[in-house]
Amino acid sequence: MVRKSYTPEQIINKLREAEILLNQGTTLPVVWKKIGVSDCTYYRWRKEYGGMRIEQAKRLKELEQENSRLKRLVADLSLDNAILKEAAWGDLPPVIVPLLTSLP
């Protein structure tokens, strides 16, 4: 099969189409072929998007992107913080560093 990226709307529409075909008595392998996805993709989509409306899927993707962006931001800030601590305190013995961090 050709590898293709689908939007959340397309995924939900394909899952709805699959549900209709299944209700008509079509077997799963035939459904997968008709909607153009593999069995693994179908089950992954069903797990992630099953029962969602299109608006909910859009919101989920937006939140996932924002979460990823915020995680990168936290990682960058943590690295900056570690670099600044190293620059400010230099090569202090490990025993002194906890004492300095506890000061107000």
TrEMBL record:
<dbReference type="Pfam" id="PF01527">
    <property type="entry name" value="HTH_Tnp_1"/>
</dbReference>
<dbReference type="InterPro" id="IPR009057">
    <property type="entry name" value="Homeodomain-like_sf"/>
</dbReference>
<dbReference type="GO" id="GO:0006313">
    <property type="term" value="P:DNA transposition"/>
</dbReference>
<dbReference type="GO" id="GO:0004803">
    <property type="term" value="F:transposase activity"/>
</dbReference>
<dbReference type="GO" id="GO:0003677">
    <property type="term" value="F:DNA binding"/>
</dbReference>
<keyword id="KW-0175">Coiled coil</keyword>
<feature type="coiled-coil region">
    <location>
        <begin position="53"/>
        <end position="80"/>
    </location>
</feature>
<dbReference type="InterPro" id="IPR002514">
    <property type="entry name" value="Transposase_8"/>
</dbReference>
<protein>
    <recommendedName>
        <fullName>Transposase</fullName>
    </recommendedName>
</protein>
<dbReference type="InterPro" id="IPR052546">
    <property type="entry name" value="Transposase_8_domain"/>
</dbReference>
